[in-house]
Amino acid sequence: MEKDFEELVKEYQREKEAGAEAGRMTELLREIMEISYDGRLMYELALWYWKDGYPARAKRTCKQIRQFFREGEWADRAGEALGLLDGDEDLPEILERTWLSGETAAKDAEKEKEAPRPEKNGSGPQIPPVIEEAFRGMVGMESVKKELVSFYNIARLEKLREEQLGISGNESRSYNFVLYGNPGTGKTTVARIIGKVLYALGIREKDAFMEVDRGKLVSEYVGQTAKNVQKALAEIRGGTLFIDEAYSLYKKDDAKDFGQEAIDTLLKDMEDHRSEYSVILAGYRGPMTEMLNHANPGFRSRFTYHIVIPDYSDEELLEIARSVAGSHHYIIEEKGYEALKKRIDRERIDETFGNARFIREVINDAEKNLADRLVKMGHFEQADLTVLKAEDIFPEEDQGKDLKELLAELDGLTGLAEVKKSVSEMLDKIAVGKEAERRGIQGDFGMGSLHMAFKGNAGTGKTTVARLLGKILAEMGVLKRGDVFIETTRADLVGQYQGHTAAKVKETVRSALGGVLFIDEAYALVKDESDSFGREAVDTLVAEMENHRDALVVILAGYTGDIDRFLAENQGLRSRVTRDLFFADYTAEEMTEIFCSLAKKGGIRIPEDVLPSVRRCLEEKASAPDFGNGRGVRNVFEAACRRKDSRIAARMREGAVLADEDFVTFTEEDMLV
After folding, report:
1. Nearest to 542 by CA among 470, 464, 449
2. Which of 103, 275, 367, 435 is buried most deeply by CB count within 10 Å?
3. Using CA of residue 579, residue 584, residue 590, residue 594, what is the dihedral sign?
4. Which residues of 362-401 are buried (b: 16+ CB within 10 A; e: fewer)?
């Protein structure tokens, strides 16, 4: 049966009073340290090590005391002992100055009874105090703790084998780490904890921790990058170097980039000075993996420990929000947490989601919104000063129109009968699928791919419908960001040199995640068979559409014939674009309706006897091949406004008496454009 802390302390005191040998004393004290770190007993362990002829172990233990107990009696005594151990004084003098009498130790042991001590957890691995203390108060991180405990145990095993059996550790083992994680997951915090553990274990001589990034290492001048890296490594000797966003050092398609010089310099120094410092790299998993695999053949092998830091769960983020708000002396109302969940769901799109960093930004914004709300209220209660409400966390103006309003807006668009029918059928399928899922009904209710082709002549409302559709899909829970609408053309997607195009396409897709990517005149992406850059754009787009099929809707728009040919020639796109919506040209009645709508918005009156002139004018203009439908109607309307203003100005010069309504009324003469 395992002994508890108090029993072991009593046994230690009995053995000490009985004059047991130093080896027995160190054995007992190490067993006590397995349960809990105690400043006084750790200090005595250091002194026993010295007495037993192990000065290096004595020094290391004193350093651990100063690491764990940064201030207070035992940290001070350990500092004093370190100074003595480094000097030339004899052992008796050291003992005379520092050794605790048996009587004092016994009294201290009795006091320790009153203080609760952590016990070993029979259901899982014991977490070393240095790790437990470092993570105290932090939300989540359980998988990271487990990884660090595993590392701690391995490193400690090697130390024990060396100390007790004289078996040297694995000299080829390097204590270098890679942390994979998205923004706001605590990579820097974890790196600092690793640095403390390395120091506490005596693997590193100093608890020094240096954080750098590409900007501090890579220079614009030949040879300067190597000097920057060497300078940083020289400063951190004995400690831990942390390189955040380390993947930025590696530019796959740019062999001349000086980041490669930084990698090569770092790699050589890590090999030459393997035991003198530790390196921790951090960044997104994908780019980090690519760098480790391709930047240099020996790069990955230098890093023994790889730790994945997961994103926080929604519940953990809510707990972080509670903590952040509390640190600012606020509380969040219950509805506020529901608003937080909506914000989290809306923003959690890909690996760029900011996790805890995002939560801090939300709380900061909520404080500003609270301040503005209180000003508008005028009179408020004292309690209002400390409560963050749902409207502070997710203001109504940020939430947009509801589904009913958006559908009414779509239905209110002039013409587009076939488009409205297609959209209605698609939305019906989505609604049925979601209800079936809610009920747990088995069957083929999947929505399939929502990527679409919008086909029709210019000015038929393709862009307007695309914007509305994105908002509707967001309200139905299919997309996360109804306000995200990225409109692009060939110029935005096709690069100027090899590799540039793929990067541009990926960047554009990333900016559209959660919403709609609208590619106008999509067929222009590939000019002809020799257009390798255009082909690269299409190939990359196809891959991104598949990778993010549930995170965005891609709409290819353009003239019907051109879009049909483009899709026929690119089967990868055709197989992913499963819905074609045809936008017919507007009829004369529909164009007249659009014209009247523009006039109404502009505050201009159209008498009944002028409407036939409006229609005739539009019919004549629409016969031109480049009229442009709705766009052409707007052009006619703007031309009519100019005719009206010129007519009124001429009458003003003539001295005519004009009524107010004359300034805002179209006449037949104005339609002669």
Report:
1. 449
2. 367
3. positive
4. bbebbeebbeeeeeeeeeeeeeeeeebbbbbbbeeeeeee
Q: How far apart are CA 133 and CA 611, in angstroms?
A: 80
Let me know: does 546 contact 573? Beta carbons within 8 Å.
no
Residue 587 DSSP code: P
- Whole-number Å distance between alpha carbons of 276 and 238: 5
Model confidence pLDDT, tens digit, residues 642-655:
999 999 999 999 99
How many alpha carbons lie under 13 Å from residue 406 in its C-beta half-sphere?
Answer: 23
185 contacts 310 by C-beta, under 8 angstroms: yes
Place of tokens 């990271």: 144
* Pairing assessment for the beta strands 387-388 and 278-283 based on DSSP bridges: unpaired
Cβ(58)–Cβ(47) below 8 Å? yes
- pLDDT tens, position by position, 362-373: 999 999 999 999
Q: Are 459 and 632 in contact (CB under 8 A)?
A: yes
Comparing C-alpha atoms, which of 117, 110, 126 is closest to residue 38?
A: 117
Total residue length of the chain: 673
Check if the beta carbon of residue 623 is closer than 8 Å to that of residue 632. no
**The predicted structure's pLDDT at residue 281:** 96
CA dihedral 107, 109, 115, 117 (to 10 degrees): 180
Please tell me the distance from the alpha carbon of residue 45 to that of residue 33, in angstroms, as a whole number: 10
Kindly give the pairing relationship between strand 305-309 and strand 485-488: unpaired
Task: Split the chain (673 residues) into runs of 10 and give each run's mean pLDDT.
Answer: 71 86 85 75 84 82 72 74 61 45 42 42 57 82 88 83 74 83 93 91 89 92 91 94 94 81 93 90 93 89 91 93 91 93 89 91 94 90 91 79 90 93 91 83 76 94 94 91 92 85 92 94 89 91 90 94 92 90 94 94 94 93 89 94 95 92 93 83
Rounded distance, CA 225 to CA 216, Å? 9
CA distance 8 to 11: 5
- Interaxial angle between packed helices 91-98 and 73-85, expressed in degrees from 0 to 180 and rounded to the nearest 10: 170
Please state the pTM of the whole predicted model: 0.67
pLDDT for residue 117: 40
Contact at 8 Å (CB) between 406 and 472?
A: yes
Task: Kindly provide the b/e burial profile for residues 192-205, where b requires at least 16 CB atoms within 10 angstroms of the residue's own CB.
Answer: bbbbbbbbbbbbbb
Instruction: Collapse the DSSP code of 74 into the 3-class scheme (helix H, G, I; strand E, B; otherwise coil) and give the result.
Output: helix
Calpha distance 663→649 (Å, rounded):
10
Instruction: Return phi, psi of residue 308, to 5°.
Output: -95, 125
Please provide residue 518's backbone torsions phi and psi, each rounded to the nearest 5 degrees. Answer: -110, 115
Alpha carbons 78 and 199: distance in angstroms, whole number: 15
Per-residue pLDDT tens over the stretch 473-501: 998 889 988 889 999 999 999 988 877 89
pLDDT at 169: 63
Helices 91-98 & 39-51 angle (0-180, nearest 10): 160
Cβ–Cβ < 8 Å for 666, 599: yes
Q: What distance in Å separates the CA atoms of residue 78 and residue 663, rounded to the nearest whole number? A: 91
Single out the residue of 174, 481, 458 nearest to residue 302, CA to CA.
Answer: 174
